[in-house]
């Protein structure tokens, strides 16, 4: 089993963290993994969801030479079409931010890479479920 | 003697009780050091004995142990691994939490084998390690090791304490987690400055951890479904494990199998939950288990697993394991459900409670024809294997006949603490158990060197019981230094070494699967008798059958510790055997 991405952040409840782990395995393997994770004393609850059951986003940052923005007209089109945002621009470089599905980020990377990227970094996945998640009520009980 | 110190008996349970009650009720605080607080926490948890080894980073705690020596008995083992196995032996025979202690760095890493053993065999244990001062953490200080990191995969829970004020809560949590639900080892790492620091001490036992549910709720529909399936079964087979012993469900278990008349087989750690000679006890399953329960696993129509985890040594090849049967799994740990064998009905919960609720739902039955099959296959196993093990006609001594004689002379009342190898399989196959918690062995990890220190812990926890340790010449030498502990503490354990001058179990595999290429399995052994005598332990060696009985009598009659070496046949094999990768029903008799 290989972890594709891992995101850890504070949840809406103080003192409780949420881990979002992306793996590519069969459901029966997944059930065993969930069992082992949930068995950890400090873990409150572990759930798994298939891609169809969630809405998710990943986020990434590109650092690109500023001169390209003016020399390569195509870059401006790419930025506009991809719904990426320019975070900052200075004389040397500009920073582009894009949130989206994995494939959208992969595509943008390929397109921009043709012109040269100074730095690239991407986040793990964050997701919400389409159906209600029981953890929300469970966590509320913790607050009381 | 004029000393007044003798007034206190360190092992007097009454004294410990009052101390325990005093501490339990203490709602007021007192200002003490972290290290004294550790002792007070142990006392509040009812700890009377702990095993360990001192060193720089744990010295403040040892200083307190010195002051409290009339209330808590610290046993100095000869190696920290010995301390863990002693704590395990203590826990396994008593059902209480075993406690051990070590210093940082090498002391802590020496605990790892025992911790891993306790984890895989679900043994409740609390390990306390000293750690370098918190200002030195992460600096590669002298004897600094990240023991929390190292022990994470082999503990049920662990934590590091850097402030004295955390000690009461964390230790309370440690004991609670170690013994509740499916038990396991917990490690608490305490920095030296936290041991020195003074704070306002107050102890409260842990009543729960928000993210941890020790026992899942039993759902009544699955229980009813299980009962219906059992009632409709024509050829039911029960395989029980240590869960029955850990949940103290022996009586409930016996009532269930007797009412439903179900043949019942055990995993190695389930042994002794019901007496060996119980008519429904059909023997051990697994690699060197009995013929009938292994073969008939692949013939039963309903397989009922109780407090066991379908280890690969039990199931053989999973693809051909009990495929014809419907499987019911009674289990406390949800992660075990469907882990190895897909179940039809899972009954989550504590075995004692589940079996109690199951009993009234069962219909009385006897399954006579089905039982006959077990008897028929037993007769085959007797003829091909057991007869030769227990009543040999050849010249060399067998391990089996030693066990038989020990059974006779201890009336089956001894606790058998076995090491790992051929002698272990023979001990578990042939020991005659009458009382629960009598089979103390390293099952899941198969840790050579387990037996001698584990026997020390078992005997100290249950001084009224006869404790007989059985080891091979190989494993015995892995923790042989614990003879020093036996000598210093005068622990009257009976030490039996079945000496075949080989790492016998490995040699057996080399014979069967590697064309007898005996690579590094032959042992040139020392004079074991002289070694035992060096520790002032009475000792005897048996090389001929005619002397066996008397030698075992000498051993049993001896009031102190006793060492008995029996020279057995060098190249005997343990059968039956399920070769790795084979199906349980392809078990070999020769
Ligand atoms: C610590 C450890 N190292 C290696 C092994 C592998 N192993 C399993 S059984 C065995 C041989 C044991 O020999 P001995 O103690 O003489 O017992 P016998 O099989 O001869 O009865 C070995 C080396 C093990 N189980 N544990
Ligand atoms: Mg040997």
TrEMBL record, chain A:
> Part of which pathway?
Amino-acid biosynthesis; L-valine biosynthesis; L-valine from pyruvate: step 1/4; Amino-acid biosynthesis; L-isoleucine biosynthesis; L-isoleucine from 2-oxobutanoate: step 1/4
GO BP, one example? isoleucine biosynthetic process
List each copy of the Acetolactate synthase small subunit C-terminal domain by range: 57-130
- In which domain of life is the source organism classified? Bacteria
Its EC number is 2.2.1.6
PANTHER family for this protein: ACETOLACTATE SYNTHASE SMALL SUBUNIT, ACETOLACTATE SYNTHASE SMALL SUBUNIT 1, CHLOROPLASTIC
Q: Which NCBIfam families match?
A: acolac_sm
Instruction: Please describe the quaternary structure of this protein.
Output: Dimer of large and small chains.
Q: What is this protein called?
A: Acetolactate synthase small subunit
Q: What is the organism field in this record?
A: Winogradskyella arenosi
TrEMBL record, chain B:
Q: In the Enzyme Commission scheme, what number(s) does this protein have?
A: 2.2.1.6
- Coiled-coil residues are none
A single Gene Ontology molecular function, please? acetolactate synthase activity
Catalysis performed (reactions): 2 pyruvate + H(+) = (2S)-2-acetolactate + CO2
Give the pathway listed in the UniProt entry for this protein: Amino-acid biosynthesis; L-valine biosynthesis; L-valine from pyruvate: step 1/4; Amino-acid biosynthesis; L-isoleucine biosynthesis; L-isoleucine from 2-oxobutanoate: step 1/4
- What NCBIfam families does the annotation carry? acolac_lg (TIGR00118)
Protein name stated in the entry: Acetolactate synthase
Q: Which organism is it from?
A: Winogradskyella arenosi
Query: Taxonomic lineage per UniProt?
Result: Bacteria, Pseudomonadati, Bacteroidota, Flavobacteriia, Flavobacteriales
């Amino acid at each position: 089993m290989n972890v594709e991405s891992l995101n850890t952040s504070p949840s809406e409840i103080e003192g409780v963290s949420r881990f979002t782990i992306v793996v590519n395995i069969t459901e029966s393997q997944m059930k065993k993994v969930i069992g082992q994770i949930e068995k950890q004393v400090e873990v409150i609850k572990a759930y798994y969801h298939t891609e169809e059951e969630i809405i998710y986003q990943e986020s990434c940052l590109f650092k690109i030479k500023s001169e390209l923005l003016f020399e390569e007209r195509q870059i401006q089109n790419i930025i506009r079409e991809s719904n990426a945002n320019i975070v900052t621009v200075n004389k040397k470089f500009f920073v582009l931010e894009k949130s989206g599905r994995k494939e959208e980020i992969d595509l943008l990377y390929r397109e921009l890479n043709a012109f040269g990227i100074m730095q690239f970094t991407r986040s793990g996945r964050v997701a919400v479920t389409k159906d209600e998640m029981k953890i929300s009520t469970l966590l509320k009980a913790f607050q009381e | 003697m004029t000393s007044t110190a003798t007034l206190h008996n360190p092992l007097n349970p009454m004294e410990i009780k009052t101390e325990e009650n005093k501490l339990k009720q203490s709602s007021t605080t007192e200002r003490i050091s972290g290290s004294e607080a550790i002792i007070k926490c142990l006392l509040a948890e009812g700890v009377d004995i702990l095993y360990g080894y001192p060193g720089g980073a744990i010295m403040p705690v040892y200083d307190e142990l010195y002051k409290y020596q009339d209330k808590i008995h610290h046993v100095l083992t000869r190696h920290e691994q010995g301390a863990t196995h002693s704590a395990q032996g203590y826990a396994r025979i008593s059902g209480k939490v075993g406690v051990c202690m070590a210093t940082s760095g090498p002391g802590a890493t020496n605990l790892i084998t025992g911790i891993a053993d306790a984890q895989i065999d679900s043994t409740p244990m609390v390990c306390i390690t000293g750690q370098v001062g918190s200002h030195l953490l992460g600096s590669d200080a002298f004897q600094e090791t990240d023991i929390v990191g190292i022990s994470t995969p082999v503990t049920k829970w662990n934590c590091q304490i850097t402030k004295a004020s955390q000690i009461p809560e964390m230790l309370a949590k440690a004991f609670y987690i170690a013994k509740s639900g499916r038990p396991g080892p917990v490690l608490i790492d305490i920095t030296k400055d936290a041991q020195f620091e003074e704070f306002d001490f107050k102890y409260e036992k842990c009543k729960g951890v928000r993210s941890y549910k020790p026992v899942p709720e039993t759902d009544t529909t699955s229980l009813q479904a299980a009962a219906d399936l059992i009632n409709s079964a024509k050829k039911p087979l029960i395989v029980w494990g240590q869960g029955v012993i850990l949940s103290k469900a022996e009586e409930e278990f016996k009532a269930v199998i007797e009412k439903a008349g179900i043949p019942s087989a055990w995993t190695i750690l389930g042994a002794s939950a019901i007496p060996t000679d119980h008519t429904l006890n059909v023997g051990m399953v697994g690699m060197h288990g009995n013929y009938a329960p292994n073969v008939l696993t692949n013939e039963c129509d309903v397989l009922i697993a109780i407090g066991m985890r379908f280890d690969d040594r039990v199931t053989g090849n999973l693809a051909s394991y009990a495929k014809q049967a419907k499987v019911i799994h009674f289990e406390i740990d949800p992660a075990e459900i469907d882990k190895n064998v897909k179940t039809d009905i899972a009954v989550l919960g504590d075995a004692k409670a589940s079996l109690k609720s199951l009993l009234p739902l069962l219909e009385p039955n006897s399954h006579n024809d089905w039982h006959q099959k077990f008897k028929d296959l037993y007769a085959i196993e007797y003829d091909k294997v057991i007869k030769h093990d227990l009543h040999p006609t050849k010249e060399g001594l067998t391990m089996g006949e030693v066990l038989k004689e020990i059974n006779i002379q201890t009336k089956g009342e001894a606790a058998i603490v076995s090491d790992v190898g051929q002698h272990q399989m023979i001990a578990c196959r042939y020991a005659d158990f009458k009382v629960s918690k009598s089979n103390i062995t390293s099952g899941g990890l198969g840790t050579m060197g387990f037996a001698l220190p584990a026997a020390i812990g078992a005997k100290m926890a249950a001084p009224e019981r006869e404790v007989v340790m059985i080891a091979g010449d190989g494993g015995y030498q892995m923790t042989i230094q614990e003879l020093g502990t036996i000598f210093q503490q005068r622990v009257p354990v009976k030490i039996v070494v079945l000496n075949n001058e080989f790492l016998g179990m490995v040699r057996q595999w080399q014979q069967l699967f590697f064309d007898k290429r005996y690579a590094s399995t032959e042992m040139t052994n020392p004079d074991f008798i002289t070694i035992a005598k060096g520790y002032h332990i009475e000792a005897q060696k048996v090389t001929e059958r005619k002397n066996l009985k008397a030698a075992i009598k000498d051993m049993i009659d001896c009031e102190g510790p006793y060492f008995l070496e029996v020279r057995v046949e060098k190249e005997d094999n343990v059968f039956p055997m399920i070769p790795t990768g084979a199906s349980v029903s392809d078990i070999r008799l020769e």
